[in-house]
Amino acid sequence: MSYQSNSKGYYGDFGGAYIPEMMYQNIHHLQNCYLDIMESDEFKKEFKLLLQDYAGRPSPLYYSDRLSEHYNTHVYLKREDLNHTGSHKINNTIGQILLAKRLGKTRIIAETGAGQHGVATATVCARAGLECIVYMGALDVDRQSPNVEKMKMLGAEVRPVHSGNKTLKDATNEAIRDWINNPVDTHYIIGSVVGPHPYPDMVARFQSVISEEMRVQLKEKTGRETPDYVIACVGGGSNAAGAFYHFLDNPDVKLVAVEAAGKGIETGESAATTQLGRPGILHGSRSLLMQTPDGQVIEPYSISAGLDYPGIGPMHANLFTSKRAVFLSATDDEALKAALYLSQKEGIIPALESAHALAALEMIDFKPDDIVVVNISGRGDKDMETYLNYYQSVR
Ligand SMILES: *Cc1c(COP(=O)(O)O)cnc(C)c1O
Fold first, then answer.
1. Which of 78, 198, 321, 355 meets the CB 3.0–4.6 Å disulfide criterion with 339?
2. Substitution candidate for ligand 1 out of 239, 352, 384 with most atoms within 8 A of CB
3. Nearest atom (ligand 1) to Cα of 86
4. Is 111 a catalytic residue?
């Protein structure tokens, strides 16, 4: 069984392209040409060079003595937090801007939650000299103001979205609306492995550099290319897709995806899609989705803006139902504790999203000789206000 998408963009029962007729031409064109473009030698060369010289790849694989001792196992941290712009998001935006140029597009739109994808998109647009418009929920504009300022300084226009609960889902709706109205000159850079085919597959391929590097780095450090565990947080699922990608067909590698439980799965304030969701269609693909009995999307909640999404990419829906990956969830409190712990034991302040993956270390019984890789998807600069509030309350 393959865990990759088929040519129609299906991962098992999930995926596809459920789109309004007015998006058809854009999506169809992208479906027809994305692989040819991505697999051309010229594209691969340019992408690789930018990942290296502009984004700073390869990102280090760091052996954490202190976490290893604490959990009585071997813990490695994949340092996506050290990338230019502070997260894994830059891998995808570099890839998509190169694609957009080859498609002859002159205007870029994007949605953003925590602002990391917005900043990464504004960054590559500045470099490419393309107009950039970022849709962002009004609540997220408030709670992630450093990233809003960065986008503006980079020359992007940030459009606050006031519908729904004013977070990521609503920003995505608005970006899709824009694309329908501007189909000819505009490329939509989606920030995760969500959306209609070919986005989930395309974004997963751009992010797969994470696990490609891990294999080389693990071989160098441990003599083995494969670890026993790979742990990553899941919003839409792009950092997890990248961290899992080259291990999908190694059944001995346990893949652990960590969702945001918010205030607790039973509280009605959470974003743990696999635990609470049912199959449904959102933003152009069939996947698992938090919804009411009559199919209305339930507003998600997480303290972490990057995980505050009611769906999950179709790759992950399939990894969940096929049981290839284990899905755990961490509450706001568990993530905050894990972030403080890493900060004080290793001198690394992780993004709140990544802290959910770290929290999973508490939930698994590792053997002393296990090799565990935690994907640190981003750095915590953008979350300092949240962290300081928490830190003051526990001191
Ligand atoms: C956006 C973001 C996430 C969540 O998105 P995925 O597509 O699930 O990876 C996680 N961590 C960081 C640092 C982010 O910026």
1. 355
2. 239
3. 13
4. yes
Domain total of the chain: 2
Tokens of 377: 């998807």
Q: What is the mean pLDDT of residues 25-51?
A: 97
User: One of 5, 80, 105, 111 is an active-site residue; which one?
Assistant: 111
Domain boundary among 172, 203, 234: 203
The finding on whether 354 has its CB within 6 A of some atom of ligand 1 is yes
pLDDT digits (tens, 9 = 90+) for 225-244: 999 999 999 999 999 999 99
- Provide the pLDDT for residue 305: 87
Would you say residue 6 lies in a domain?
no
Instruction: Evaluate if residue 37 carries a pLDDT over 80.
Output: yes
Residue 5 placed within a domain: no
Q: Is 315 in the pocket of ligand 1 (CB under 6 A)?
A: no
Q: Helix or strand or coil: residue 133?
A: strand
Look at residue 158 in the predicted model and tell me its pLDDT: 98
Query: What was the pLDDT predicted at 178?
Result: 97
Q: Which one of 89, 105, 166, 382 is the catalytic residue? A: 89
Are 123 and 185 in the same domain?
yes
Contact 236 CB / ligand 1 (< 6 Å): yes
Centre a 10 Å sphere on the Cβ of residue 257 and count the other Cβ atoms it contains: 27
**Cβ pair 212, 243 in contact under 8 A:** no
**Any ligand 1 atom below 6 A from CB of 377:** yes
Q: Provide mean pLDDT across the span 355-378.
A: 98
* Mean pLDDT across 158-175: 94
Q: Please choose from 93, 233, 287 the residue to mutate so as to test ligand 1's pocket, defined by most ligand atoms within 8 A of CB.
A: 233
pLDDT at residue 395, rounded to an integer: 63
pLDDT digits (tens, 9 = 90+) for 247-265: 999 999 999 999 999 999 9
- Residue 118 CB–ligand 1 contact under 6 Å: no
Per-residue buried b or exposed e for 207-230, using 16+ beta carbons within 10 Å of the residue's own CB: bbbbbebbbebbeeeeeebbbbbb
| Beta carbon of 353 within 6 Å of any ligand 1 atom | yes
SS3 317: helix
Supply the range of the domain harboring residue 161.
Answer: 11-50+89-203
DSSP, collapsed to helix, strand or coil, labels residue 322 as coil
**Direct distance between the N- and C-terminal alpha carbons of the chain, in angstroms, rounded to an integer:** 51
